[in-house]
Design brief:
Elements: H1 2-34, E1 49-51, E2 64-65, H2 68-71, E3 83-86, E4 89-90, E5 106-107, E6 114-118, E7 121-122, E8 127-134, E9 140-146, E10 159-162, E11 166-175, E12 183-190, E13 199-207, H3 211-214, E14 216-217, H4 226-235, E15 239-247, E16 255-259, E17 265-266, E18 271-278, E19 281-283, H5 292-301, E20 305-313, E21 321-325, E22 331-333, E23 337-344, E24 348-349, H6 358-367, E25 371-379, E26 387-391, E27 397-398, E28 403-410, E29 414-415, H7 424-433, E30 437-445, E31 453-457, E32 463-464, E33 469-476, E34 479-481, H8 490-499, E35 503-512, E36 520-524, E37 530-532, E38 536-544, E39 546-548, H9 557-566, E40 570-579, E41 586-590, E42 596-598, E43 602-610, H10 618-642, H11 645-648, E44 659-662, E45 665-670, E46 673-676
Parallel strand pairs: 15-18, 20-23, 25-28, 30-33, 35-38, 40-43
Antiparallel strand pairs: 1-6, 2-3, 3-13, 4-5, 6-12, 7-12, 8-11, 8-13, 9-10, 9-12, 14-17, 16-18, 19-22, 21-23, 24-27, 26-28, 29-32, 31-33, 34-37, 36-38, 39-42, 41-43, 44-45, 45-46
Length: 682
């Protein structure tokens, strides 16, 4: 039994040690993920950092070494160690202009731009510390981006910090604990070329606070929902404890009490008990006879809502609650709407305005919630503007907002006032005071200020009747006929319009194949229109139409030409290439298919042509050989027939004939002697 227990103990010890090793390995792997780029730049390189493509070369010779600003007779950089990021400086001496007072680094100034981005890392539950200096604008800052699961940004920037227009770097601290476990990256931005258009950065480091020793403070969860409280406790490494629902006069499903109380310091992992309000009933208070404002406050204090359904004429004070529904004393749920009927004014007593000036009469009527309606002018010996009669009569009871018609006294004889130099509004007021009416308004071109009256009919001083109309003419700017700028360039159109007394307005562009780029296609107003001087003329200019080059590979020349023509393109240089493929087909094109080119551009082609093959005419050679053999046979027969035997035969000698073919000549060997024949041509 002892041996068995020892074996089991050893097995469990081995398993425990392996589990501890795996946990340590996972911890260090996670830590390496959080810091997979250089934080202090102390190795003199940008390991784990890269310049964002297309942003510039401000970081081409970084990091900077030593206190370079102090060497330039400026304030100290307050850097840590030897190396740091300073985009005004340049550590690469070949690409910098050395200041005579510097010994270790050069200067590239504020002009270069660029963005330096770190590798992605997993946000630890820690604080991020670093130092930053330089310009104090958003164009020179350190940024922290938080990613989601797909690598896209939840929000553009979660943290950012700039310098203070000083070479001295100050300390910055960012709390990354709310984003622990998410993926993020850091960017050092220098996108300014103005004064202080550079940034100094150094000494990134993470600080991991140990909460398990000092504990955490319990957050305030009052008036929060259970879901929100659970997430907040989980972020602080606390647990959700016992949950109780109590009937209180509070918003349902919200926390009304918690244990421990807010602000208490407890160990990590402690439980927090919650008390949540549940739906409860309440008796409706009696608000009948109270003013609406007081009734509304009392119902709101009872966690009830208010709705005014109608207003009723009553002798009670305006705004007094006449009835309520549900009735007072009814038991309802919290948040129930209570409908109210309010008292409003009853019929209004029309005041007496006879003898008052019509302006004073209008003010008196408006105080009584009435207003002056139709006003008629009557010739009278009383002072001008006095009210002679009113309808309805004084003492009548009418509804609020009723119009009261008035008769106003006017003088018997009137003279037309001088309206010259007045605006239309001032002329109307002046005519109204004289019991006259503004008649027709015509417009006349004049050098006078635009909008002023330059003429009137009847003329000033002419005797006229009351309520007569006076026609006026107002000055307008000299009209100009819009010239035609069609097919002109933008600069030519501007010169022509400005010379004509018009303004060059907005310009838009539209693709066109019938006009050159930059020529005017349309204008507004159109040519020939009369407009005021300094009016704007908007233009539509042509721009080159871009078309997509179609694919013509494998087509015949005719098909390719037709397809290019439909796309608005032309055939350019045509070259032939020898190959064993099918003859007459397009093998290559330039530009290639899918490229965007200008309308009417040339497309160069390469056409396949068949290689020349040399075939031996065996049939003809055979016929020639047979024919030549026939000729030789005929010659032999003729030789036998023509030659005499006595001449041929010697004394008892034998005749031997051997035909020899030699390049078109005939030779005969007689008794061993060779006799050459003549050429066939001879």
């Amino acid at each position: 039994m002892m041996v068995r227990e020892q074996v089991i103990h050893r097995v469990f010890t081995c398993v425990a040690m392996r589990m501890v090793a795996l946990c340590c390995l996972a911890f260090f792997l996670n830590l390496s993920q959080a810091v997979n780029f250089t934080l202090g730049f102390e190795k003199g390189d940008l390991r784990g950092w890269h310049v964002v493509r297309g942003t510039g070369n401000a970081f081409r010779c970084q990091p900077t070494r030593g206190d370079a600003p102090r060497a330039r007779k400026r304030e100290t950089a307050n850097h840590h160690g030897q190396y740091w990021i300073g985009t005004f400086e340049c550590n690469n001496k070949k690409n910098s202009v050395r200041h005579r007072s510097q010994s270790r680094s050069g200067i590239q100034g504020d002009r270069p731009k660029g963005i330096l981005r770190s590798a992605n890392f997993r946000v630890p539950r820690a604080f991020l510390h670093f130092r930053v200096g330089g310009g104090n604008t958003r164009a020179t800052e350190v940024q922290l981006y938080i990613h989601n699961g797909t690598g896209e940004f939840k929000e553009r920037i979660r943290f950012y910090e700039s310098g203070r227009n000083s070479e001295t770097m100050h300390e910055v601290k960012w709390d990354l604990r709310p984003y622990a476990g998410e993926t993020a990256h850091i960017q050092i931005v220098d996108m300014s070329s103005k004064g202080w258009g550079h940034i100094n950065v150094d000494y990134f480091r993470f600080n991991y606070p140990d909460r398990s020793v000092r504990g955490v403070r319990v957050p305030n969860l009052i008036n929060k929902s259970q879901q929100r409280a659970s997430g907040l406790l989980r972020s602080l490494r606390l647990r959700l404890g016992e949950i109780k629902y109590i009937a209180v006069n509070r918003t349902p499903n919200t926390i009304v009490r918690q244990n421990p109380k807010p602000g208490a310091r407890v160990p990590v992992g402690s439980a927090v008990a919650l008390y949540i309000a549940k739906n409860s009933f309440i008796r409706v208070p009696n608000v009948t006879g109270q003013l609406y404002a007081n009734a509304k406050d009392r119902l709101y204090q009872s966690r009830l809502k208010v709705d005014v359904i109608r207003k009723v004429e009553s002798g009670e004070r305006v705004g007094t609650v006449l009835t309520q529904s549900p009735r007072a004393g009814s038991k309802v749920r919290l948040g129930t709407t209570i409908s109210l009927e309010l008292a409003k004014k009853s019929l209004i007593l029309v005041p007496n305005v006879i003898g008052q000036h019509y302006r004073n009469a209008s003010e008196l009527l408006s105080r009584s919630s009435l207003f002056a309606g139709d006003i008629s002018y009557v010739d009278s010996d009383q002072r001008q503007g006095a009210v002679l009669a009113q309808r309805p009569n004084a003492g009548s009871r009418v509804k609020s907002g009723t119009a009261i018609s008035l008769e106003v006294a006017k003088s018997k004889k009137l003279k037309a006032p001088n309206l010259s130099g007045l605006t239309l509004d001032r002329a109307k007021d002046k005519l109204y005071a004289k019991r006259l009416i503004l008649g027709k308004v015509s417009r006349q071109e004049s050098e006078e200020k635009v909008g002023l009256i330059i003429d009137q009919t009847p003329q000033a001083g002419v005797a006229i009747k009351a309520n007569s109309s006076i026609n006026v003419s107002i000055s307008v700017a000299n009209s100009i006929i819009v010239p035609s700028v069609h097919s002109l360039t933008k600069s030519q159109a501007r010169i022509k319009l400005v010379s004509a007394g018009l303004k060059f307005g907005f310009v838009t562009y539209r693709e066109s194949t019938s006009h050159k780029a930059g020529e005017v296609l349309e204008q507004s107003p159109v040519a020939g229109t009369k407009v005021d001087r300094n009016s704007q003329v908007t233009l539509v200019l042509s721009k080159t139409k871009l078309v997509v080059v179609p694919s013509i590979h494998g087509l015949s020349f005719t098909e390719a030409a037709e397809k290019l023509k439909k796309s608005g393109l032309l055939i350019g240089h045509v070259k032939q290439a020898n190959t064993e493929n099918r003859k007459g087909l397009i093998s290559k094109q330039n530009p290639r298919a899918g490229h965007k080119v200008r309308y009417g551009s040339l497309v160069n082609l390469v056409i396949i042509s068949k290689k020349k093959s040399y075939i031996i005419p065996w049939k003809q050679i055979g016929l020639g050989v047979v024919g030549f053999a026939g000729v030789i046979l005929i010659l032999r027969l003729l030789t036998k027939l023509v030659s005499p035997k006595s001449d041929v035969m010697g004394a008892g000698g034998a005749l031997h004939i051997k035909p020899i073919i030699d390049k078109g000549k005939q030779s005969i060997e007689l008794n061993g002697n060779l006799v050459k024949g003549e050429d066939d041509d001879q």
